[in-house]
Amino acid sequence: MKRILAFGLIVLSLSLYAASFTTDKLCLAEGVDKVCIVSGSISTDINYTLPVDDGVDTQVLTTDGAGVLTWEDSGATPVVAARYSTNAGQNINMAAEIVDFEDVDYDTDSAVTTGASWHFEAPRDGYYTVCSAAHFTGTTEYDIGEQFFLFIYVEGVEHSIINFYEMKTSPASNVIIGGGGCDTVFLSATDEVNVRITQSSLAAGGLDLTSNNSLVWISITEQK
Predict the structure, then answer these.
(1) Cα dihedral 161→165→166→170 (10° resolution)
(2) pLDDT at residue 57 in the model
(3) Fewer C-beta within 10 Å: the chain N or C terminus?
(4) What is the C-alpha to C-alpha distance for residues 175 and 203, in angstroms, rounded to an integer?
(5) In the structure, what pLDDT confidence band is assigned to residue 93 with cuts at 50, 70 and 90?
């Protein structure tokens, strides 16, 4: 089978031989070794227009759907991810208070601001999975019907409750109140997300989060 390839004023006639008489191949040989391009099952001519340069490192060859090939960035953008914990024993009163996770485990894009207004700021639009856990120190201050809520807030507005606990009996000894959960949120670039706690015990001065940082943490991961 013959194919005529034209490059400017130079015309090359190449012979394409069928492998096992079933598949067309175009091969370049060096000695007995060769590199081959194998066509798929086609019912019409397919023409490709090659780029005019070599591209740059990590770029990939893409098509416009009409056979025109260009070099483009690979799009292999690293995933945004952050994980923080705390051992500060933060005091939580009855209001929906922001948890200050001040100890960084990792933060790929330096997206977190710590402190009383702790928040993660999305570097770009996308879906992000937010997981968190928070627990108080052992206490007998909870009574029947008193509650614990763990919220995700986006842009200062409640997005979801990821954990809820209600005391069913009066504790005779210290109990650890808390819990954790996850939700996926859509964030536009620069949107801020944080986790807040409400607890309804009547403990004077509120309750302290445990200083065990395996029980008080947050992770936020971009979904690809």
Answers:
(1) -160
(2) 79
(3) N
(4) 14
(5) confident
